[in-house]
Amino acid sequence: MSSQSSVGNLVDLKDDELLLPSYLQKQQDGIYVSLPTFPVGGGFDKFIDRLFGDGFRFVNLDYQLLMDLLYDYGTILDEHGMDTHIRLADDIIRFPAKRKALYKGVKLDDAFLSAEYFFEPVEIEVEIEVPVYGEEDADGVRRIVGSEIKLETKPTSLKVDEFVAEMWLRGVRFGIDVDKVTDVIARQESVRMSVAEHLEVFESSDAEIEEANELLHRDNSPKILPNGKADLRKFQNRFPQIEAGARLLKKKLGVPGKPGFKVNGARIEPEIPKDVDLQALAGMGTTVEIQDGEEYIVATRNGFLALDIETNHIDVTEKIENKAGVNIKTTGDLSLAGKEFIEHGEVQEGRVVEGTNMTFRSDVFGALVSKGGLILLEKSLSNGSAKSLGGNVTSHGRAFNSVIEAHDGHIALKYAEACHIAGKSVVIEHAINCEIIAENIEIDTVEGCGIAGKSIRIGSSDSSRGNESNISVVLPDLRVFEAQIRQFNKSIEECKLVIQKKDQEVAQICSNAEVAKYLALATSVKQSTVKLTAAHQENWSKMTAKFAKVDNALDRLNAEKQEQLKRIQTALEEIAYLMEGRALSGKGICCKITNVAGDTLVRTMAVQNGIPELNKIKAGEIKAKLREQGSAQARLFFNDEGSLDWEYALPEIEPLPS
Fold it and tell me: Is 639 exposed, middle or buried (0-12, 13-18, 19+ CB in 10 A)?
C-alpha cells in the first residue's frame, strides 16, 4: 500500500492523481490554502466532495481549519487577515478500497444533531510472498524453486484522516471530535460513542436602548440637609431636571447571530435581530439626532423628565407629572422646583408637597403648600391642608376636616365640611360647619358655619347639628383714624401757638421808632423806590451795620415761623389722607342673605387691622371667636327665617376735641 502523494499538475496529470484548484497549493512541507484567492462565495465544499468521492484523503489534516473554511470563513479572516497562506494538511493521498472497507456505517439521529459510531478492533487482508519448495534432493533437502502470493488477515488500526474522509461520504460533514476519535482508535477498544455533535446557533442580539445621561435616574436616597443630617421624609432627587441639548437615550444596534450547523453540514440560521425605532419613543420636548455616528434621543428644551408608560414615550415637559402617588415608598415628601406639577395618584396622610402650580387628580390626605401658584384639587381633600402663599386654591371635589388658606388670593370650593377656610376672597357652593374668613365671601348654601368678612353674600343660610350660622360683618375700627386725626389737629394747634408767639416777638422789635424807620428805609432800598447816591452809600453801610443784630433776629423769627407753617401743611395733608382711608375702610361693607332657612345670627365686629388681624388668631381660638354672640347693639339679624340686605354707612366723623 503506497502513501505516495496523489497531487498532480495540469501538464502531466495522471489517472490516479488529483488536480488542485488554484487556491490550494502543494508545497514541499504540505498543502496550503491561499486566502486571497479562496472562493468565499462557495465551491470549496464541492472540491471536498470530489476529493473524498474520488478516493482521496488528507494526511495529517487540520480538521478545525477545514471546518472554518467550510462554515466560518469570517473567523479565519479575523485571525489571519486576507493576505495569508495557511497550512491545511501534510499531503493528499489515495484512500484504498481495502482501507475503506474497515469503516462501518455511522448512526445519525433524525434531526442530524449527533452521530454515533461503533469502534472495535479491525483486521485487513494483506498479500504475503511465500517461497515455493521443490522435491527433496539426494540429501533430503527441499530447495526453493520459486515464490507465490498468499492472502493473510492481520490486525490493523483505523486512522483519523481516513475516518474523516469516510464519515464525509456517509453524511457526517461537521462537528467530528477528532481528539476523541484519535484517542479511542489508539486504545483499540470496542465502544459505541458519539463522534460528532452539532453546533448550537449563537442567537442574535436585538437592538437595545441605553441610557445616555445619569440624570435619568431618580435618586430616592434620603435628602441631606445643610447640617449634614438626613431627612428621611424627602428623597434626594425624585424628579430629574433636564437641560436642552442633553442626550437622553442611545440606540445600541442589534448584532446578528452566528449560524449553527448540523452534523450533516446543514446550516441553522439565527433569528434576524429586532430593531428599535427611536422615533416611536421620542415624545414632547425631544427629538432624534445622529451624533458622533450614534443615534440619540435628545432634549429640545429645559424641563423635567417624564416616562409615559401608556404611550411608551419619553418626554421633557415644563411641568412635572407623576402617576405613582405621593407616599413614603414612592416619593416621600416633595419640594418641587418646577412651575407646574400634576399628580394623578393619591397623596398619603402625613406627606407634604411643596411647589407652585399644582394639580391633584386623586384624593389628597396630606399637606399642600404653594408658593404663589394655584392649587387645583379635582377630587377630595380630607384631613389635610392646602395653603397657597400669594396664590389661589380651587377644589372641584369634597373638602372635609381640612385647612384651606390663600390669605392674599382666591379660594373656590364646591363642597366644604368642618374646614377652616381663609382667603382674600372665597366662593363656595356648599359649606357645612366651617370657619370662613375673607374680605369678600360668596356662598350658595351655608349650614352652621362661623363666617367673618367685609362683603358677604349668601344664597341660603341654615343651622346644622345644633349649630347656628353665625355671620360677623367686619367693620373698620374708626377709633384708630380718629385718634390719629386728633393727634394731627393737636399738632396744628401747637404750631399756631408757636407762630403767634413769633409774631409777638417781631412786633415788639418793630415797636422801636428808630428800628421801624430803618426797616421802612431798608424796604424802600430793596424795592428800588429810593436811589442811593455815592455820598449816601457810605451812610447806608454804617446804618446796616448798626442794625445788623435786628436783621438777624427778624430773619431767625421769620424762619421759625415758616417751619411751623410747613408743619401745619404736612399735618393737614395727613388728615386728608386719613379721612380718605377712613372712607375707604367703610366702602363695600355689606351682608346679603337671600333666604334664611334656619337659625342665623348676623352681627357687626369691629377689628383693628381688619381681616389680617383675624388670620393671626390660632385655629383653636378662631372657632370660638366666630361663634361669639356679640352685643345687642352689634346684632343686625337673628332669626330662623326671612332675608337680609344690609349695607354699612360710614358715620360722620364727630368733632374731635383738641
Answer: middle
